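Slide 14.
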Amino acid sequence: MEQAKESWWRRFADSFVKFSVKLGQEVHLMSLRDAFGTEMPIFITTGIATLLNSVVFPFIIKDPKILTYFQNFGSAVINGSLNVITVLLAPTVGYFLAKNKKFDNAIFCAIMSLSNLFVIMALKYSVTPDNATKPVSVTGVLPYTVLGANSMFAAIFVGLVSTELLIRFSKVKNFQIKMPASVPPAVMNGFKMMIPSILVTTIFGILAALTVGLLHTDFISLIATLIQQPFKRIGSNLFGYMFIYSCGDLLFFFGIHQSVLNGTLLGPLETMNITENMKAFAAHQPIPNIISGEFRMAYMQMGGTGMTLCLLMALFLFKKQIDYKPFDTVAKLSLGPGLFMINEPIIFGLPIVFNIPMLFPFILVPLVGGLIGYFATIIHFVEPLAIMTPWFTPPFVSGFLSSGGDWKVVVVQVIIFIVGTFLYYPFLKLAARTLKKQAELSPEPVDTAASDEAK
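Slide 15: predicted structure.
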C-alpha cells in the first residue's frame, strides 16, 4: 500500500516537473520573460522617479512654484521610461525571440519590430489642447498615451509576429539576394533581409489599413480590446493568480526554481499592472490594479518564495519546542540572505525540497498572506501598491516604499508575518520529529578504519 502511494506521488511529481519545465522553456514565453527581465532596471528607475515626484519632493518642498521646478526632473525621467515603454519593449521582444531561436541577425529583428510597431499606429489622434474643453484631431504626432503601458500588448504582439515572419521568410531561398564575397558583411546582410523585410512590413501595413477601413479603429486599439483586456481580467483574478503562483511554489518543492513557471506566466502580467499603477500614481489618479509584482513581494513573498522569513522566525521563537539542532544552524546561516529575499539556503538546507511535512505551509502561508493583503486593499484600509522597488528590498521596507510611504501597509505586513510564523511552527515541529525518526531508523555508518585495525 505504501509503495502504491509512493509510486503515485512519484508519477505526479515527475509529470508536473516535466510539464512545468517544458512550459517555462517554450520559446515565445521564454522570450517575453527575457525581455521584461531586461527592461526591469527601467521600470525600477520609473519607480524611483515617481516616488520622488509624488512623495519626497512634496514632503520637502512647500512652495508650489519651486515644487514644480523640482518635479520636472521626475516628469522627464518618466517620459523617457514608463511613457515610452511600448517603444522599448517591441524591439526587445523581437531581439530575444530571434536569439532564442538561434537566428543569426537578431538586431535586424529588433529593428523590424520597432518599425512595424509604428506601422500599425493610427495616422491621426484626438487630443485636447491645454485650456481647451473639446478635443481636436491632429496628425504627425504620437501621444505618450499610445507609447506607454496602455499599448504593451501591441508591442508584444508585434515583436513576436514580426520576428516570427521575418525568420520564416528569410529561410526561403527565392527571397534571398546573394551578393559577391567582396561585399562587406553588413551590406550583405542588408540585401539578404531586403525581400523578407518588405514582405513583413507589407503584411503589417495591410493589417493597419484594413483595421482603419473596415473597423474604423487602429490596430493597437484592436489588440487592446480583443487581447489585452481579456488577458488582464483572467490574470488579475485573485484565485487564478494564486493558483498559478502556488504551482510555482510546488515546483520549487521539487527542486526547480519557481521562476521557471511564475516568471514566464505571471512576470509580464505583474509588470504591466505595476506600470499602469505607477502611471496612475504619478497622475494622482485611482490605482487600477491590486495584483502586481509589488503585491506579491509585500504580501506573499517576504523573505523569498514560501514566505520563508516566517519560517526562520518560527525557528528562532520556538527553538526549544522544536528541539532539533540542525535546524538552528540552518536558520542562523539563512537569516542574512533571507532579509534580502534570497532563500535558497533555507530551501535546500533545511531542507524544504522533498520534505513532505513542509509542503503544506510552504504553499499555504503565501496564500494566506495574499488573502490578507487583498482583503486589506478591497476594504480600503490600504491602497493598491503603485511603485516598483528592487526585488531584494527587505520586507516592511518594501511595503513602505511601494505604497509611497503608507505605514498601514507595513502594519498589514506585520500581521501577515505573525500569522505566517505561527502557521509554520507545527509543521516545523512535525518535520523535526520526522527527521529524528529517519535518523534513528537509518543504519549507523561503518567505521572502516577501525574495522581494518581490528582485523
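Speaker note: Residues 407-441 form the longest helix (35 residues).
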